[in-house]
Amino acid sequence: MYVSSWHICFHSNVFSKQIKVVIPLRDIDEIRRSQHAVINPAITIFLRMGAGGFGVPPLGCPDGRVRYKFASFWNRNHTFRALHRAMKNFVMMIDAEKQERAQSALRAHSSSRKNSKKEINVPEDCAALTGKLQPFVKEEVLVPVFNGTFPCTAEQFFSILLSDDSNYITEYRTDRKDKDINLGQWHVADEYDGQVRELNCKSICHSPMCPPYSAMTEWQHIVLSADKMDLVFETVQQVHDVPFGSFFEVHCRWCVKTISSNSCSLNISAGAHFKKWCIMQSKIKSGAVDELKKEVKVMLDFAQGYMLKVSSPDQENSNLAQQDNTAPDAPSDTG
């Protein structure tokens, strides 16, 4: 007998007679201790109505369910406990996935609500989550990807790079050759502190396992302190068309703190959060962090260039005004 996260499997080959059984854990209704031929301890697995397993046909039951009976265990009680433990872990995993789907739906609902022309119904799974403020990203998956300084204050970081009037995000996405960029406006959400908005685009993919472009949704969340000295910018990114794209999200947090009149400390952490298990999980996690380290460097370089471009017209106007004030007056004609 073999037990995995999703199935209970059985294989035997006695006197050249092979028996194979595959039972999905989701189809199991009950697991009982039983007896085979009176003296042989056994385990009977009852399946829910309508389920039948795979392989050898199951036995029938008077109540309409079907069952599989397994016997000749070296230690029946040990196996029984292991099967119950597998079922308990499976139920916990399914509940966790439901919770993740509810939080994702809540995040999408909050971020896109202002831009929708019609009222969006909150899924029933989200109803229990809307009673208190929710964390926007998963703290436990974040790992440091950048720690340094940036030549502006936290307030300037928001107003120049992230405000509704800023074109930084759009220009950065255009520069990296993304398509169909649609960036919503910041708005208050009842479920989170600060403000949220949604970014949709077709993001360019460089991996040989991915299509040239993939639809991408990024939910953004921002909180600026009352004294405008601290800024927290968080993103949750879902890439839809890559392998296992529906299994995980990329979470990122930017912490900006003003340290002088023209500089701030900048700490960026990120990680891949899996909504359900997949076989490539460890590779995707490490790959996502490595990719984000490269992208953060490009984003910061582009941000500095954008800030110089935005501030240069003001600087030029200031220089021109200063030249006008210091220029000698034209000689007057006294006749």
Kindly describe this structure.
- It is a single chain.
- The chain is α+β, with helices and mostly antiparallel strands and 335 residues long.
- The protein has three domains: 2-73, no CATH class; 93-129; 139-311, Alpha-D-Glucose-1,6-Bisphosphate, Chain A, domain 4 (2-Layer Sandwich).
- Helix content is 30%, strand content 35%.
- The strands form three sheets. Strands 9, 10, 11, 12, 13, 14, 15 and 16 form an eight-stranded antiparallel sheet that branches. The chain has a four-stranded antiparallel sheet with strand order 1-2-3-6, with no helix packed on it.
- β15 and β16 (263-274) form a beta hairpin.
- The longest helix has 46 residues, at 281-326.
- The chain is elongated, with a radius of gyration of 30 Å.
- The chain starts with a strand and ends in a 9-residue tail after the last helix.
Radius of gyration: 30 Å
- In the predicted model, the low-confidence regions spanning at least 5 consecutive residues are 115-131
CATH level 1 class label of the largest domain: Alpha Beta
Which range does the strand content fall in? 25-35%
Q: How many structural units, i.e. domains?
A: 3
Q: Which architecture of the largest domain does the CATH hierarchy give at level 2?
A: 2-Layer Sandwich
| Number of helices, counting only DSSP H or I runs of 4 residues or more | 4
Number of strands: 16
How many strands, which pairing sense, and closed or not: the largest β-sheet? 8 strands, antiparallel
Kindly report the CATH topology of the largest domain. Answer: Alpha-D-Glucose-1,6-Bisphosphate, Chain A, domain 4
Q: Summarize the amount of helix as a percent range.
A: 25-40%
Please, what is the average pLDDT? 82
Characterize the overall form. elongated
- CATH superfamily caption of the largest domain: START domain
Order of helices and strands: EEEEEEEEHEHHEEEEEEEH
Through-space gap between termini: 115 Å
- The assembly state of the depicted protein chains is single chain
Structural class: alpha+beta
Region (Disordered): 313-335
Subcellular location: Membrane
Biased composition (Polar residues): 313-326
Main location: membrane
